[in-house]
Amino acid sequence: MPPLPARARTFLNLARSGKYLDLLEAGLAALKRAGIAIQVSHFFTCDRADSLPRVPEGGFGVRLLGKEELAPIAEFARKDLQVYRRRMDLFQDECRELTFLGELVGYCWLSRKEMRVPELGFRRKLKPGEVYLYDGMIREDLRNRGFFGLFLVGLIREVVAGGGSFIISIDFTNYKSKGTYTKLGFIKTGTGILVSPWKIFTFRYQSPSLKS
Amino acid sequence: METNHQMNPEEKLKTLFKEIFQVPGEDFSDDLTPDTVKEWDSVSHLVLFTALEDEFGIRIRSDELIELTSVKKIKDLLAGRGLG
Hints:
heterodimer; A: eight-stranded mixed sheet; globular; B: mainly alpha
């Protein structure tokens, strides 16, 4: 394996610093054309419920699903049902559905054991109380109408009431998603960076309680 | 979030859109939707819901909330409550 080119090292350092994201984004595209892929994800955490907006009452339902109830969700998400079942078997992950007037409008997965970021090939054991949210979706024609916000508000209240914290991983270029979570009180607590084909991985994580 | 009580509904709505979605007054129009306003995401929609209830003193049902997908539709809702 040849040494990491200086140009890639520069951008790796930029990614670690968390600064000049627009420059970093442009640089990553140029590196990708040269066969060097740098994947950067930001980790966000929420351990407080005082920034949550009010939500409407009535019509909505959130339910924890059993393994035998996953088929409609896998079909909805166009994912492999066996993969979904294995998540419950291997990791005891939880799948929640969101309904409105009895109709399925979205779902999400939660893990209390392990944080897994496939884009980075990254896994980390969760501490007691930490909940990792991943693979969530709202029906495409119902987006930006408050459904996902309402779903999250309920989940955050539940986790925080139990003294826990919520963790998510977002691609660093997904500014809209980062904005959405920030409005709910999430703060950036870490960065994961993967440089391939060198497989250099760097990870930083800071407990939200250490942030000012 | 607080608007001036002397404002008419149109002015109040314009102020709310500036505060919640950062839409400048000159860009405010009936045609604004989540597709045309960058900041109009799922969470901001809930913030808008709270602001509309508080500023206009109305209650919005959940089935009404999910249909509020443009300024025109919000104005229609307000007009239906005698606030047009």
